[in-house]
Amino acid sequence: xxxxxxxxxxxxxxxxxxxxxxxxxxxxxxxxxxxxxxxxxxxxxxxxxxxxxxxxxxxxxxxxxxxxxxxxxxxxxxxxxxxxxxxxxxxxxxxxxxxxxxxxxxxxxxxxxxxxxxxxxxxxxxxxxxxxxxxxxxxxxxxxxxxxxxxxxxxxxxxxxxxxxxxxxxxxxxxxxxxxxxxxxxxxxxxxxxxxxxxxxxxxxxxxxxxxxxxxxxxxxxxxxxxxxxxxxxxxxxxxxxxxxxxxxxxxxxxxxxxxxxxxxxxxxxxxxxxxxxxxxxxxxxxxxxxxxxxxxxxxxxxxxxxxxxxxxxxxxxxxxxxxxxxxxxxxxxxxxxxxxxxxxxxxxxxxxxxxxxxxxxxxxxxxxxxxxxxxxxxxxxxxxxxxxxxxxxxxxxxxxxxxxxxxxxxxxxxxxxxxxxxxxxxxxxxxxxxxxxxxxxxxxxxxxxxxxxxxxxxxxxxxxxxxxxxxxxxxxxxxxxxxxxxxxxxxxxxxxxxxxxxxxxxxxxxxxxxxxxxxxxxxxxxxxxxxxxxxxxxxxxxxxxxxxxxxxxxxxxxxxxxxxxxxxxxxxxxxxxxxxxxxxxxxxxxxxxxxxxxxxxxxxxxxxxxxxxxxxxxxxxxxxxxxxxxxxxxxxxxxxxxxxxxxxxxxxxxxxxxxxxxxxxxxxxxxxxxxxxxxxxxxxxxxxxxxxxxxxxxxxxxxxxxxxxxxxxxxxxxxxxxxxxxxxxxxxxxxxxxxxxxxxxxxxxxxxxxxxxxxxxxxxxxxxxxxxxxxxxxxxxxxxxxxxxxxxxxxxxxxxxxxxxxxxxxxxxxxxxxxxxxxxxxxxxxxxxxxxxxxxxxxxxxxxx
Length: 850
Ligand code: C2E
Ligand code: CA
Ligand code: CA
Description:
alpha+beta, Beta-Lactamase, Alpha-Beta Plaits, eight-stranded mixed barrel, six-stranded antiparallel β-sheet, 20% strand
């Protein structure tokens, strides 16, 4: 052996370890910077969310105060006892407007100011006192009073934030009017005004923050004005401002992780040092042993004794045969490997011991060119008569003999077979898998099936297998697949093939089925067998199957085509109501191609901005006022023109494109609505897919924060299918949405099965009666009474009822007569593009101002 000079092992080891240390240092620095970045991002998100919740809390208090004061001010009795005369007995002693407003609602101040702006009734902290409202509030209030009186006809109260003794307070004012009480007659002249004062003292703020998960909400002091977490109250913060302490999840994360990273760094450093030391020592040893090896080489190569040792230490045995093919030498190892005795075999023929499939060993070795190195795989029987496999290596030796080694490769060959089996069979069911099926199919197609003796391919897919997995768990799902495999196996003949090619997809290849009738009979048997209930761990499980059929040579003669066509037929079977079968037909392909084309176009179209949003106004029926608009999506296809949602929403839902599409609609609708007058809301349709996947809550929260649209101006329309598919999940999502402050209405009401029960148990704000009921109005009294019943139900559950599809003035009259709240339809306005809708809004505003 020639030994080439080489560089020292010590130097090499040092250099590579140094590189490793640099790399580790870099990884640690990178991790730490990433962590700091993530922590900062977390903190700022938390900050924005708490600001959003604080704003919501203040708005909700303001809304409550307005609702409460409306109930007291627009009230016939109050008009008689506080405006016409001032009756303290009625108001304070009989508690109509007395101390309970402080004890129950926490209104600190309660005043009535008469037509000449003098305070005639005042209750402060539940005690009847005599004090001027202006004096108690510490500021002039004539503007507030004017505003309240101006809102008398429309029953709109006014609110303002004041700072009273440094404490921010919300003051609501409403003109006292007879309301809808027909027994009280209204007088001419300016009305009296009722004032409610609610102060935001520390206890109130603590409670308010707690309800929305905002910590440490308090009045901001002058030295905090530069802080970020500040919400000014009233115009320019004239009513003071609120401050709170947002949680710092990022800082907490840093506090937890940084020490850990530091410790990990220290450990890794220590380990690198230890390894460096050890490798240096090992490398030094290697260097020196290398030197000594060189000198002993010569001695080693000449030692025959040592050679024998090596021979016996190896797992192979060594043999020698003479020119008559008889063993002249067999090494000791032979006995351990085969269990046979050396004595018995020395002198025996090698052909007796070893056999091959290609002929005897003597024949093989006699062939020309075999005297050089040759390798032959052979079989033999060991002492227990078990079949074993050995690899024989041979080369010619003196006097026409041979010598060589024999390696036992039984385990290796067995493992190889097993791997091959596994690679062609499905691990769960043991059925052939896709690649075995492919091989089988190719083989069958090579024998050229004929019209009389066709090759039939069935693709069978379980219907509604996913719910089994989702509801009962994967273990049961696996058992179902095994049971189905077993049943399929029972339905076919011996030369046929059943393969599992995907989750719940099977392929059957049938040989001896001639006519379509026979194929149908086979499909019938398969479906019947699968439909039989399965009892699995106390569950009774029902599944069914759909089958697509393609035949060679009629439909195709290529494996790939046959598979594709059977798949298309399967798709049609599913569309045809499942639990059935379909033969492939030529036009199926065209239909699917067209649909695929549309699907591709849509994917592209969403990215290219081909979607358009139209708005259909919604009106209050009683006075014709516009209250909001429904956003309806359209697709401006470059060749097909404007496509209506009914033609592409189903495709979007099936392909998952509904998520980007829905996102676009939600964002665009909110962006538009921000520019509308504050009294108008926008309503957006949601698919049930969007409801179940795609983080709806996060999306809505993000859109509200990013567009700045007030949450109560956004309405989400959902259909009953959302609840049918996953009632408890839906309830959870709806509650979260309500916490954000958006409105939710049930669309297409009346077309489903059990809408009524859902209305009671889910937090809806409104219902939209399906237009099929409205379109028949006038034709039958039935529909009128149905709508009437829905309106009464809506009233009883405090839901806003909207009628859709108002197409004629008669429809509108009927709906008015039964006091339906809101309406939408071509008669009132068609859906308009965004610009046309803006024009309408402006015209409307002008009309109101006149
Ligand atoms: P929908 O939610 O029931 O929407 C009302 C549909 O009725 C709209 O059809 C509207 O143009 C139509 N309509 C309004 N007034 C009348 C009328 O007086 N008579 C008649 N015959 N029809 C009227 P459009 O815009 O074709 O929308 C169809 C459906 O597509 C919608 O039904 C909704 O389910 C869905 N859709 C529309 N936009 C979206 C969207 O952005 N996302 C989702 N997921 N679905 C949407
Ligand atoms: Ca709708
Ligand atoms: Ca509808």
